[in-house]
Amino acid sequence: MRIFDPHIHMTSRTTDDYERMAAAGVRAVVEPAFWLGQPRTSAASFTDYFDSLIGWEPFRAGQFGVRHFATIALNPKEANDPRCRPVLDLLPRYLDKDAVVAVGEIGYDSMTPEEDEAFAAQLALAVAYDLPALVHTPHRDKARGCDRTLAVVAESGIDAGRVVVDHLNEVTVKLVRDSGCWLGFSIYPDTKMTPQRMVELLREYGTERMLVNSAADWGRSDPLLTRATGEAMLAAGFSDDDVDKVLWRNPVEFYGQSGRLDLSDLDAAAAVDPQTGNSILRGGS
Amino acid sequence: MTPDSLRAALGGVPDPDWLDTALRRVTTEPTAITRLFPAAGRRCGRAALPDVPGWTADDAARVLLLTSLPGEHAAYAERLYQHGDAAERRAVLRALPLLPIGADGVPLLHDAIRTNDTRLVAAAIGPYARHLDQAAWRQAVLKCVFSGVPLANVADLDTRADGELTAMLAALAAERHAAGRELPADANDLLHRLTAALPREA
Questions:
Q1: Which domain of life is it from (chain A) (predicted)?
Q2: Nearest to B149 among A97, A277, A285 (CB)
């Protein structure tokens, strides 16, 4: 089973997680820029975070043969803090980077006017930089938030096929499916979505435009739930090809729209650089 | 390594017109390098260049963009490094010895050597490291040994290695032996060469 996790916050995970993910078949990940738990108080703090997403984190992933890509954005939660707003002006230089395959996570948290503004501005950046967009949906007032999200996406002029609307559930799936956007599902131990519920949704709605992610972060989450979902699909009678479509080909197709998803030599990627070896696997001296 | 040999080795890149245009453009419009530099990997590829061992197309293209600038090389190198991803940073480090900047790029070497990214450490210990003071240079060599960066990346290794580096390597070897571990083979060889060259005392 080859797995592409299209949404996981590896910054919050340990190196042991990379090792377990690689052993479970995870060969590529996309790490969306998001909130870190502790609210940030300046744009400079974001710069270091974004630099890590395109520098240190891909190196760390590479130790285990995992390809690491990122999406960059000012997240909706911190878009509400005027001290963080200057981040919007820093985004263009990051959207030019090789491993940045979308603008994200953008969208709504509390549906404030500040979030409206940041959301629209960043959808415009996605259009200007010819990148897909990863859109977070709010955890509170989700159904109405989803509705409003789709209206803003439609208004922005971005092609619906270049947008994934994430963290969906039984209540929001149909709305997004009818919009033409891609559908993201975050499989959590017991909240957003579970492997079993996911299997039911795949039965009902099919495998087209469906993206399954672990969204693992600093909270209670599990980077191996992508694999668990693949196994639940097989147990429910889905074929190996269905699993490969959902867990590999779909995310490759979605993020491949960036023109930057370089998955060549994936088998040879076990070492970051064969000339230089590494310093993490051995743990130094 | 010279810009001319890098340019010749890049003859077969997927999109040679892009590179030609980009190199001409930065001579008259230097600020254009800000967006050309990150795009170089996508436009020129990242394949190894057989004519210049140890070089890839993206590194070579980015180095040429920097050497093609009409001036302010140190300022551009610093900004492109600070705003670069790991591949861009590596290219800036490799360009430093080919730029007319004297020792102005040394702070970038210090930054790279502070990281644990072996790609950056390896690029920082090449020819431009002649501008590092001896203490910083020894620490960088030890960091290579410690983190598994092959010592073949270290420029002027045998001529620059001194008694203090020998002592540091011997101490690391002793620490490893005490733990039932060995130095990497290239470091062990270096230690043997250095101790063999020392005058013997009774």
A1: Bacteria
A2: A277
Termini Cα distance of chain A:
35
The per-residue pLDDT for range B35-93, each reduced to its tens digit, is: 999 999 999 999 999 999 999 999 999 999 999 999 999 999 999 999 999 999 999 99
Measured distance CA(B19)–CA(B3) in Å, rounded: 14
Chain B residue with the nearest C-alpha to that of A55: B86
Q: Which of A99, A272, A284 sits opposite B119 (nearest CB)?
A: A272
List A residues 54-73 in contact with B (Cβ-Cβ < 8 A): 54-56, 58-59
A200-219 pLDDT tens trace = 999 999 999 999 999 999 99
Rounded Cα gap, residues A101 and A130, in angstroms: 10
Phi/psi zone of residue B122: left (φ > 0), alpha (ψ -120 to 50 degrees), beta?
A: alpha
Chain B hits for A284, CB-CB cut-off 8 Å, are 146-147
Decide if B31 touches A, using CB distance below 8 A. Answer: no
* CATH code assigned to A3-260: 3.20.20.140
In angstroms, the CA B55 to CA A98 distance is: 19
Interface size, chain A vs chain B, as Cβ–Cβ contacts under 8 Å = 73
Instruction: Indicate the SS3 state at residue A209.
Output: coil
Note if the bond before A105 is cis, omega within 30 degrees.
yes
Sheet containing A163-165: which strands, arranged edge to edge? A3-5, A26-32, A67-72, A100-107, A133-136, A163-165, A182-186, A210-213
Residue ranges of domains in chain A: 3-260
A37-56: per-residue pLDDT in tens?
999 999 999 999 999 999 99
Please give the ipTM for the structure prediction.
Answer: 0.90
